[in-house]
Amino acid sequence: MANKADKVKARLPRGLVDRHAADIRATDKMLAAIREVYERYGFDPVETPMIEYTDALGKFLPDQDRPNEGVFSFQDDDEQWLSLRYDLTAPLARHVAENFNEIQLPYRTYRAGYVFRNEKPGPGRFRQFMQFDADTVGAPSVSADAEMCMMMADVMEALGIAPGDYVVRVNNRKVLDGVMEAVGVTDEAQKLTILRAIDKLDKFGETGVKLLLGPGRKDESGDFTKGAGLDEDQIEKLVVLFRTPNINWLSKPSNDATIDTFEKSPFFVNSTFKIGVTELREIATLVEAAGYGTDRIRIDPSIVRGLEYYTGPVFEVELTAEIPNEKGEIVRFGSVGGGGRYDGLVSRFRGQPVPATGFSIGVSRLMTALKNLGKLGEGDVLAPVLVTVMDGDMEAMGRYQDFTQKLRSAGIRAEMYQGNWKKFGNQLKYADRRGAPLAIIQGGDERANGQVQIKDLIEGKRLSEEIESNEEWRASRPAQVTVMEADLVAEVRKMLDQQAEDRVRGA
């Protein structure tokens, strides 16, 4: 026996979670619905590894001896730095560049997988989480961006979220770049800080964003975030674009009205701003022609997206329905996915322009929202039928195993009890905890007659609540039938079908 001092303490690392059967099945069900939409749009799956060379993940990673800020990194035996991917887009760019001559452009692909962030964990903020992406590489027209927005809308509706309970919000980084040029911001690092500050508008409000644009902001825990260092005049010019009442997304203006406001803005003299507005006009025209109104896809100047590699249209899908959290409190859930155009990411490897656009769904966040809305259960997976063990000799055990395999071969979930079989009551308690729908029982008498008993545990539980005395219970033997061994599979299927009908009637 190990010394207590030698025992390792079981502990889960901060920012990580264990996933259990219900969540895994709910996730699988949701991914299947999303995958069907992607396939309908003509996208094909691809899979990239979780580990990439660190320099392949992006020029925007910190330049340090050990590049582990924001990503998890380690050195290979050849002394090259490797990192766990922080998203699915940078690995796709590497894949496309490495296989450029074999890939048919435009390259339309989707993939799901875990990504990792070496960041401070907090409520709802994890170091490992799943994304589900779709991308088009090699399509320079903003019609590809418009299609991404329409596909995001279709995904939401495939998951049971109606127009009005979600909205795809669209902006253009060229609009934002033009504004920054107009206020005299040229430093790239400062631009990125400004973009990330504006991206927090929903979270911190105008006051908080102004602090991030200026000297910096201290959060409730006392942590300080350094600001962009803009002066008051620059800050005012920036925030005025997002404060204008007739382009506030909450007022739900038409896309044409929002773009008209852009064109009347003093920033419209800037050529970069003007190109961005023109592209937004094209997107608005395309989605409207396809029947997507502003209740589904809306131009919104407050959308930024925090990553540096976006070069054109950017978009987010936000849940606007009132959603209860785990405590039953009604909350605004916010963004569950987003993306945009990243024309420079593949070009880093190729040295030539390679246009690309795509979006990413935050699987865990969206799943939580769907569950709280009552839109997603774990599906139709039943607990297994339990084959009980009444006798431990090899002949009897062989029969029990044969029953189990016959059920499995017929497509019925089944398991043979593997615990201490000598206490039969424990087997039924185990079946109850597992939620088993049926128990298969064969003692010596049944075996001699070539018979088995099938106990309907769901109906039996219901009837037991109606029977008051043990005498009535023994006399009624509720929800239990005896059949010949040859009829086992057919009778089990019949009883499971009846339970399914009962669930439908009770729904």
Features:
single chain; 507 residues; alpha+beta; BirA Bifunctional Protein, domain 2; Rossmann fold; 2 domains; 8-stranded mixed sheet; 5-stranded mixed sheet; 17 helices; 18 strands; 40% helix; elongated; ATP binding; ATP-binding
Task: Characterize this entry briefly.
The protein is α+β, with helices and mostly antiparallel strands. It folds into two domains: 21-188 and 277-372, Bira Bifunctional Protein, Domain 2 (BirA Bifunctional Protein, domain 2, 2-Layer Sandwich), CATH 3.30.930.10; 385-506, Anticodon-binding domain (Rossmann fold). It contains 17 helices and 18 strands.
**Overall CATH architecture of the largest domain:** 2-Layer Sandwich
Total count of helical runs of at least 4 residues = 17
Overall shape: it is elongated
The mean pLDDT is 86
GO biological process, one term: histidyl-tRNA aminoacylation
Protein name: Histidine--tRNA ligase
Pfam family, one: tRNA-synt_His
Keywords: Aminoacyl-tRNA synthetase, ATP-binding, Cytoplasm, Ligase, Nucleotide-binding, Protein biosynthesis
